[in-house]
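Problem: given the chain below (266 residues), write out its structure.
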Amino acid sequence: MNIRRGLSGRRIAAIARNAFREAVRDRVLYNLVLFVLLLTVSAIFIGQLSGGEEQHFIVNLGLSAMLLFGVFISMFVGVGLVYKEIERRTVYAIFAKPVGRGEFLLGKYLGLCLTLLVNVAVMGIGVSVALIYASRGFDPLVFRIWPTILLIYVELMILTSIALLFSSFSSPALSALLTFMFFIIGHFSADLKSLANSMGSKPARVFFTALYYLLPNLANYSFITPAANRQMPAAGDVAAATLYALIYICIILAAATLVFRRRNFK
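Solution.
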């Protein structure tokens, strides 16, 4: 009987915990203290603004910084998860045990998602505290921003899976570049269809149409500006976007596993 068949939750959880601890040792989470302090101090200096502009500024600044921090964590930590194990040759010891390559990748992915969850949660609390301070009391906007924060986290989960896919076959520098390009193009994915329709060449139309359907529309996860204007995404839209992201992530991780299984470490 092949003991490597099937995915083991225990082995995946062990790899995820190790990936989370490794991210903490890399001081990924230390930027949270600086973020919260800067955001809170900024609320003090903009407290003299009138017309409720301070709340608008805090939400825009806070959520944008949250997305930016998360993107860089996904890029630079995500692409290094697999590469570090190969570079240190610890991957040989891992695969000498009854650990499948799919379990290894899934564990690494879940560990980084846990790291991002802690980052996003603490940053969201920082934004909420700054809003309460700027409002000199409770503001309903504190609750209204959390669906937007959830969408930001879901977008970061997608980017993390993409970073892991690229890192399964390329160098960290190239993987980070490709992930960043994916992030930029994903936010303009809706324009690809218009661009495809405007092309006179059939191969060009086919190419841009394929890109449109292959790349997720990350703009669907960006609700920062409406949130700053006290608008909330509809619950149905959040649920649909989350479901689509989970399906997309499963496909990307399956592709990463197929590529990683064919990789020769000798």
